[in-house]
Amino acid sequence: MHNPDPVQAVVFDVGRVLVQWDMRGLFARLIDDPGKLDWFCTHVVTEEWHFEHDAGRDLDEMVAARKAEFPGNDDLIDAYATRFLETIPGPVPGSHEIVRELAARAVPLYAITNFASTFWREFRASEPLFDLFGDVVVSGDEKLVKPHRAIYDLAARRFGHAPESMLFIDDNPDNIAGAAALGWQVHHFRDAETLRADLTGRGLLG
Per its UniProt record, what Pfam families does this chain match (predicted)? Predict the structure, then answer.
């Protein structure tokens, strides 16, 4: 059942909602041995470790510490720092079209993303879709991360809409729960087709 408040703005997550993200995809190009690839992605460059950079931990410090902890993997750990865009193979099917249709209907668009500052700047320069967004709150810039309350409160202030009048879209159930607890309207993203149906039901798409 939808919140009775009309949606005045739509707020997207970025990774796995608007763009695909697969760190293993980068390292599969660099590591031929499937066993070593599994080990490396499970123990060395993991999503949990990467999340520390999203939260604002310094990249050079992270890389140096990881090299010390896992000697013999310097080139691969450097690739994480220098080739991050190769972990983003392309758009999530159908999502960019939804963004463009919302923009064409003059629906205010925003984003809240757990994304490291350096990687975000590199990625943003390559992705014109975000020209359609009024503002993007980036965890690495703010040293705040989803699903903690502070990043949602900051976003509401920056975006200029009450939480209950915004629809927040994210693939991570913890992030959805964090926003919903603060009164945001939410959509747990699974695919663009389901999102389109929800947006149409809310009168945001035709």
Answer: Hydrolase
User: Which two three-digit tokens encode residue 96?
Assistant: 């960019």
Please, which pLDDT band fits residue 38 given cuts at 50, 70 and 90? very high
CB 46 within 8 A of CB 73: no
Domain 9-20+89-201 in CATH 3.40.50.300? The answer is no
Residues 54, 114 contacting (CB under 8 angstroms)? yes
Model confidence pLDDT, tens digit, residues 138-187? 999 999 999 999 999 999 999 999 999 999 999 999 999 999 999 999 99
Distances (CA, A) of 173 to 19, 118, 176: 18, 26, 5
- Residue-range domain boundaries for the chain: 9-20+89-201, 23-87
Q: What is the pLDDT of residue 2?
A: 54
Helix residue spans in the chain (DSSP H): 23-28, 34-43, 47-54, 59-69, 74-82, 95-104, 117-126, 139-142, 149-159, 173-180, 192-201
Q: Mention every residue, 6+ apart, whose C-beta is less than 8 A from residue 55.
A: 114, 139, 140, 143, 145
Cα–Cα distance between 183 and 163 in angstroms, integer?
6
| Helices and strands, number each (H, E), in the chain | 11, 5
- Report residue 101 CA to chain centroid gap: 20
